[in-house]
Amino acid sequence: MTNELTPKFNPTEVEAGRYEKWLEADVFKPSGNPDAEPYSIVIPPPNVTGKLHLGHAWDTTLQDIIIRQKRMQGFDTLWLPGMDHAGIATQAKVAARLAEDGILPQDLGREKFLDKVWEWKDEYATTIKEQWGKMGISVDYSRERFTLDEGLSQAVRKVFVQLYNKGWIYRGEKLINWDPKAMTALSDIEVIHKEIDGAFYHITYQIEGSDEFVEIATTRPETFLGDTAVIVNEKDERYKHLVGKNVILPIINRVIPILTDDHADMEKGTGVVKITPAHDPNDFEVAMRHNLPMINMMNNDGTINENGGKYEGLDRFEARKQIVADLKELGQLVDIKPVRHEVGHSERTGVVVEPRLSTQWFVKMDELAKNAIANQTTEDAVEFYPPRFNDTFMQWMENVHDWVISRQLWWGHQIPAWYNEAGEMYVGEEAPEGEGWTQDEDVLDTWFSSALWPFSTMGWPDENSADFKRYFPTSTLVTGYDIIFFWVSRMIFQSLEFTGKSPFHNVLIHGLIRDEEGRKMSKSLGNGIDPMDVIEKYGADALRWFLSNGSAPGQDVRFSYDKMDAAWNFINKIWNVSRYILMNAEDVSADAVSSALTKVANKTAGNVTDRWILTRLNDTARRVTEQMDKFEFGVAGHILYNFIWDEFANWYLELTKEVMFGEDEAEKDITRAVLLHVLDQVLRLLHPIMPFFTEEIFEKLPNTSGSIVVAEYPKVRLEFNDDKASEGVAMLIELITAVRNIRAEVNTPLSKAVPMLIKSEHADFFNAVSPYISRFTNPSELTIAKDLAVPEQAMSAVITGAELYLPLAGLINIEEEIARLEKELAKWQKELDLVNKKLGNERFVANAKAEVVQKEKDKLADYQEKFDTVKARIVELKEN
Predict the structure, then answer these.
(1) E strands in 602-753
(2) What does the angle CA 507 – CA 531 – CA 116 come to, to the nearest 5 degrees?
């Protein structure tokens, strides 16, 4: 049969070829329906330095969930894919590959080296797209972009020139962060501060023309080669007599002045501070105030330059060792005190960053930051989920420094500035006319082009581009909190400046994926997890389920193979449920399903369990949609899990066996139709999270056609709501559960029939569902009445709307039964206390929705009734 499912779920078989079929069917492209509301996402572009990591798998999973649901809800959805050239990282990777063959980039020259990088890009872009396919992400590849595409490059040049003409981009000599391995400037946020073991080196400088010395302390003794002054605080009585004099730098014997400046703290160290303006940001500011010379004592590769005297050519750390040894020999090394301190490291290469005076290109940030801050008070404000990350964004924008955007690399957007021998500079979108012009060799920071991503990918600067007009601003961005500064902030201020709009309406922030011990995944720890390895073992659906249910927005999540096992088991459960339904409902027509559902809704056919499951399905669809709209995927997944596993699989399917194993064919037809409908709706609710196996089952349903990708997302159908049926089956389930618990307590198996008494105001209902009670509790005699004599020796339970008694004379111990009931009484007392506390809170009663308050009052009444009944039963047992 075509609708058969294999006995065991096999993710490899289910997912093989499925993605290619979706692409062939073009189901991922926008609908083009002009009447549909547009919903757009641009993928956070992975860089082309290698394979996808779990963090990017998380990004893409959450975005795919959003776009798949919106597509099913009828939105005109666009999910635009692309990749980032990742200047420093990619150039470093290619250089490392060439080094394996003994080739340096300089051996090839710029153009031939870039040819090698493009080969790398093509290789790894192919790999990334293959991995996207394994993840199942539903992007429109016809719109795929790359940050070095001509269209995006045109946008980059236009932005650079416009900011330059406004005076917001400038070229100047300032202290910047320098990566000696990549030999390029870095922005502040590309520097990671790590705690390392270091030392304070206490060194003496001799006062010129005197036998007197002053003592300074530094963690970087090699930088004394670039000292141009020492400072003391003007209020420091210890050194007033020295102000205006000079000190002699040891070894190199250069004379520098002693000045006063508030930067010298009388309470810290010796109160004397060495000033190295070209290698320390604070010292740079002091030098600017005092018009001091600035001596750069380091080459691009971190070796000492010609200003280092005999240390020229030594690596900075080797020079440190030599200088310390020489100072010790001179008697000018007073002490070495170990210290644990934070030191800046390159985010890309991992080496210690050097603050260094350098001529670079900068973006002036004050006006751009003001615009971004002001926008967050308007209707066009970007909504952060969770909202606390708006504070993170605002704090960074309020304290942002000018952005160094030039990089001393070959791979990237070459700065659109040209120079001639006359010392003139030309900045423009195209090269200047005439001969004798040489383009600036530096390239732009990768984040400069990535900042334009939401609108440059839509066709900007052509504001008449169909995609730009239709899909910009984009709807939602999903990304980790670790790149709010790198990317999110820059997209916002650049979009406001060049389009007058926020780049997106919502930003969903997720956390980091950590290992099972809570550690950040890293190569050094060897605890990284390759998402492709996980997919190979468990399938993409299981990984996506884990990633979507792992945590709340903004929170980190710990990867766990136990959780992966649980995800696989959940899918297998649904698979088995589907096999059961398909085997029992393979010939049910669409008309038969529609007719049956109408009869159930009108209560002209079907039973209370059918009406119950349709009511619960309605409630599930409503709650899942609400949580998805709030990006609470974990909550939505929890709701789905409980409905599918507990209510649908464990209860409704089992309850239907009373009908399916019966003689009434008309009733069977109704049940088959309801089973098919609920399964169909469950698959649609699950599809955004787990697309592969839901499509596999969906296409085997007897009344479906086309792909589930474009099937309608479930909506609440009010005609299916039946509160009475919902309350009734809830009582039935509670009753069956209570009987099972009692039997377990006295070690009485279900196979052994025992008498059962049910005392309830809902006796008519319990009599109506007595076949279910008999099937699932096996009573030897079943008595149901509104009022009946309570047996003296019986196990009892109080459930909503009823009292249950199982006369098990000889099997129970009265004292133990009283002890058990007293525990139950304490449980109900605790519940009562909690509800009373909530209802006693005036703020809760005043501010909560009326239905929420009423729900608490209903709980109070229910708990009070159970408390009173249990208490009465205890009294009764004690009296007997």
Answers:
(1) none
(2) 90
